[in-house]
Amino acid sequence: MMDDPDVVFRMDHGPVSRLAHRPLAGAVPVARQVLATAPRFVHLAQPVLVNGEAGALFGTREDPVAVVGFTIVGGRIAALNLIADQDKLRHLTIQP
Predict the structure, then answer these.
(1) Strands in 1-96 per DSSP E
(2) Which residue of 19, 54, 56, 60 could cross-link 45, Cys pair, CB 3.0 to 4.6 Å?
(3) What mean pLDDT is reported for the chain?
(4) For 71-78, which contacts have Cβ atoms below 8 Å and span 24 or more sequence positions?
(5) In terms of pLDDT, which residue wins out, 15 or 62?
(6) Cα–Cα nearest to 54, from 26, 76, 23
(7) 54 with 47: CB under 8 angstroms?
């Protein structure tokens, strides 16, 4: 599966986080971000459905640390949505 050239990566670390980021847009910036951060965390990921879409869970369903949801359009990743805001994680529907 390849990224859409207009792929968007949104990161929500919560309102008080020093890690607040504007969304990244475009295959190259998104790929750079993923390649820079994913190797440290990929061993903790487990595939899940997040609100009905493909995703990855970091932590457990009872105590999630973060989730990434993927929006797939035409067989390509059109968006990645990382949520690490603990208040928002409590309201997600995470399925195996």
Answers:
(1) 2-12, 24-25, 45-50, 53-59, 64-73, 76-83, 94-95
(2) 56
(3) 86
(4) 72/1, 73/4, 74/4, 75/1, 76/1, 76/2, 76/3, 76/4, 76/7, 77/1, 77/2, 77/3, 77/4, 77/7, 78/4, 78/6, 78/7, 78/8
(5) 62
(6) 76
(7) yes
The maximal CA–CA distance of the chain, rounded, in angstroms, is: 36
Q: Give the residue among 29, 18, 37 at the shortest CA–CA distance from 82.
A: 37
Q: Which of 70, 6, 62, 72 is nearest to 38 (CA)?
A: 70
The total number of residues shown for the chain amounts to 96
- The string of pLDDT tens digits covering residues 18-56 is 665 789 999 999 999 999 988 998 888 999 998 888 999
Whole-model pTM: value is 0.82
